[in-house]
Amino acid sequence: MNNITKYVALDVSTKEKIAVAVADEGRGPARYLGEIPNQVEYIRKVLRKIGDFSQMEVCYEAGPSGYVLKRQLESMGVKCTVVAPSLIPKQPASRLFE
Fold it and tell me: Between vectors from CA 73 to CA 31 and to CA 40, what angle results, nearest 5°?
């Protein structure tokens, strides 16, 4: 049984900052929560504000940050997926603009 109620996206665009967005289960729009320092205590704090760790799933794009963030999240009990940008499906029309 899937008990995930919050989907959290992290954008680790710089070594210092992480942008955070969250979507509730269902079809409502995602909400941008802002940027936080890329430090484990700030990550834990923002995730606690979002909800119960056991009921959320986090994802972020694979990149130079590696798997450190994934290991930190999993040590907190948060399910985390690292997404490879090349494996994200695209709609046929979007390929026209590449």
Answer: 85
Which of 1-13 are b and which e, b meaning 16 or more Cβ less than 10 Å from the residue's Cβ? eeeeebbbbbebe
DSSP state of 50: H
Q: What is the mean pLDDT of the chain?
A: 88
Q: Whose CA is closest to 84, among 68, 60, 67?
A: 60
pTM of the model: 0.82
**Cβ atoms of residues 82 and 67 within 8 Å:** yes
Pair 57, 74: CB distance under 8 Å:
no
Cα–Cα distance, 67 to 52 (Å, whole number): 22
Largest pairwise CA distance in the chain: 42
> pLDDT digits over 29-53, tens only?
999 999 999 999 999 999 999 999 9
Residue found under tokens 């997926």 = 81
Question: d(Cα 87, Cα 83) in Å, to the nearest integer?
Answer: 8
